[in-house]
Amino acid sequence: MVVADSGAVEVVVVEVREFDPERDCSEVEDVERRCEVGPGGKLSLFTDLLGDPICRVRHSPTYLMLVAEMFVDKDGDEEERKIVGMIRGCIKTVTCGKKLSRNGKNPLPIYTKLAYILGLRVSPSHRRMKIGLKLVKKMEEWFRENDAEYSYIATENDNQASVKLFTDKCGYSKFRTPSILVQPVFAHRVRVSSRVTIIKLPASDAESLYRRRFSSTEFFPRDIDSVLKNRLNLGTFVAVSSESYCAESWPGADMFLADPPESWAVLSVWNCKDVFKLEVRGASLVRKGFCKTTRIMDRAFPWLHLPSVPGLFRPFGLHLMYGLGGEGPMAVKLTKALCGFAHNLAKEHGCGVVATEVSSLEPLRLGIPHWKKLSCSEDLWCIKRLGGGSSDGSVGDWTNSPPGLSIFVDPREF
Ligand SMILES: CC(C)(COP(=O)(O)OP(=O)(O)OC[C@H]1O[C@@H](n2cnc3c(N)ncnc32)[C@H](O)[C@@H]1OP(=O)(O)O)[C@@H](O)C(=O)NCCC(=O)NCCS
What distance in angstroms lies between residue 40's CA and the mean position of ligand 1's atoms? Predict the structure, then answer.
């Protein structure tokens, strides 16, 4: 509270309310543009939401976006309101553990209702005023009203502001540290071994395969069918040795799983390019010039397979590989072939990079080509138990459970 020279009492008020697409879009985009993700002072990543601030949650079954609006109340008269922060959240049912089935063979998933916080931003000129904290608390209220049992967030390990806000002030604990692996899309096509057959699965086969083989993987979404049927999903692809199958001899998911080849791998591709664009800012002219030269060379001599840098300093799109899995001694090699295939698909669609996110213990990560400089080796996921629900029964408190070898990263909230 401030008493102005005139004697009027001025109170600065911050109100958190639901985002209104009719009136808030341009202001929210403005805050987004001014927000760096991660620590300042070096290269940083900006996100262009293509005019739709809800885009990163709108494909989830239940979602909400809140904005923090600030205004000065002068003796009961309001001065102009402005948006200074926002937060998105969504809720869905995912696997948090597994139990043995009656026949003792296939593990069965244990599901829980999980909430996820993303896209928390506070305008740089209004930080350290507890606005971030207020937004998180309000979002958590909505999570509880909707019976979510856990809430989690993902942030860069070195984003001190965010890590401290969630761990010191909101009761979250560090949970998993998956890696975001990013592969540049070159101007040339990547060679895919001719000894590998890649088969695009019909959506129903993709669903059966994921439900039967991956539903007990942590974070597996129970509504996988809606993920696979979404227009942003570009397909699910299985790689096998060309000695075992050709594209025409796919027997259907049931027969395939009843008698699978010795080795196989699977992944799906999601088109994030139509949802948001990214841009790397803060690079020197020398660095930009060098990157541009590699690109010109790669375009001119594609047969040389030069590892050129895509145009990351202007808005670029990405494809996400998700639902990676596989079995057998050749699974890593088959994963590599699938990643090469996904690269070529991304090239056809004009993307700058192909990304994926995998558990730090994922055995197939050896088959995922990526550039260390573009990747994030430790994306930190922090979790909190919200309520006393007990759908996770035999798992106990999920927040204390050890990590599995794999996690299922939902492309809807990447
Ligand atoms: C992270 C962010 C949302 C914090 O918003 P904020 O409104 O400034 O945070 P608050 O004022 O509510 O801070 C609450 C607590 O968080 C921690 N915190 C916030 N900013 C911090 C900083 N720069 N350094 C260390 N701790 C910080 C402190 O514990 C703080 O409490 P204190 O002020 O009593 O010490 C803001 O810095 C931001 O928009 N960053 C860029 C986008 C981003 O990284 N988002 C997070 C992705 S999940």
Answer: 13
Tell whether 365 is covered by a domain. Answer: yes
CA of 162 to the centre of ligand 1 (A): 5
pLDDT per residue over 93-142, tens digit each? 999 998 877 776 778 899 999 999 999 999 999 999 999 999 999 999 99
Of 192, 164, 160, give the one whose Cα is nearest residue 345. Answer: 192
Identify whether the C-beta of residue 108 lies closer than 8 Å to the C-beta of residue 143.
no
Q: How far apart are CA 242 and CA 28, in angstroms?
A: 51
Gap between the Cα atoms of 285 and 341, Å rounded: 33
Cβ < 6 A, ligand 1 pocket: 35, 37, 120-122, 127-133, 153, 155, 159-162, 164-165, 168-169
**Domain range enclosing 60:** 11-175
SS3 162: helix
Residue 225 has a CB neighbour count (10 Å cut-off) of 15
Last residue of a domain, one of 175, 198, 218: 175
